[in-house]
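Reopening: histidine kinase still failing for me.
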Amino acid sequence: MKTEKKTRRFKSLRLIWFIMLVLVGTVPVIVINRIVLATSAANEVQSRIARIQNQWLIVVNQVSKSGYIENPKNEVIDSELVQMANLQDGRVIVVNKSFKTIKDTYEIDTGKYNISEAVLQCFSGEAKVNYRQGDQYIDFAQPVYGADNTEVIGVMLLSSSTRSLDELADKLESRILLLEIVEFVLVVILAAVLSSLMVKPFKKITDSLNHATENPLGEEIKVNDFVETKSVSDAYNKTLKRLRQLDDSRQQFVSNVSHELKTPITSIRVLADSLMSQEDVPVELYREFMGDISEEIDRESQIIEDLLTLVRMDKSSTELNVTQINVNDLLEATLKRLRPIAQQKNVELVLESFRPVLAELDKTKFTLAISNLVENAIKYNNQDGWVKVSLNADHKFFYVKVADNGIGIPEEAQEHVFERFYRVDKARSRAAGGTGLGLAITRSIVYSHHGAIKLYSRENEGTTFTVRIPLIYIA
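Support: Ran it again with your exact input. Result attached.
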């Protein structure tokens, strides 16, 4: 339980936004501050080096012109060297061309020989500057030329302390650190406020949804704080609307089923009661009533069979028995079976095939779908009318059109004809023997094949159903 709570806490959108805001608000500032601090320190060192080097060259020139290298008994130069060392809080060393130290302001190496790398480089005519950051010193090594400015007659070394620079850098770093702490605290506060504001609309959505669950399918939500939350609200409301429609459809379906199943039973009951209430019923009347009862039983059986077919259609499409079928032969066989029904009304039944079509179908179910369309076209046609079935295909789909010149479907009824138990003209539909489930079954079969079905009709002019189904079935 504790692990689950921790996991949920780390998956919190508020926490993620809080961390992101803190990181975005602090990391760049810290990085920039470090870069500025390092750049500032480097610039200060370079500035110090340039300033000291200018002063140092002046002293070196004075030493060169005064002949101090050959005669180090010059008190003025000695004073200049000591003053230079004091100003730089460091040390001055003068080495003659014999590598002997003739002056050391620390009075440590005077009289000793100095053959360090810096001295050797200076005698080859190369000046040297070295910043010893760890030791807090800048070392200057400068060759001293003779009167002709061609021969190096000595070397002057200066070690300048950088403690003041380091102290300045420490003070600057301390101030920057203080500013970073203040900035971090402000960013944390701001991030907490902003993250709370960001998740507030989602909390409103959650509260609205929780409230809505207390009254299922009864209340829409509106959270229009942001585009995203408005999209969520709209999506929920759209789903709610669809669920309401489904719920209404379910209730209507249950009501229709009850009514449709009850009607034949009521008729049977009335007929049976009529027979039972009479004595010495003539055989002819008895046979007539029993025939009517038999028809009602057949009608009841047909309704139940269609309902079972719909239930099977509502199951997963993986239950389809899909094989490759010659659609031309299938349509020809279907129309051959239905021609006797058409001949009873003297309706001309025509098949028009534009090309051979092979498709992956469930033969039994697809035959049922086409049979329903053609039977309806015959039943709701006029005497001496016609029904034309056409077949065509492209590289991806095949198309079956079932057109007639019958009574047509009113425009206001066209959007309902695929609903279960819906009848345009209930009296005429029952007279024709329909259950009101045929088109619902047809649409379900077409959809199970990933197809589509469309209707075009004009009252008293005729109706056309167009079925489009992929040539290759993809489960």
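Residues 399 and 468 are 5 Å apart (CA to CA). If you still see a failure, please send the error message rather than a screenshot.
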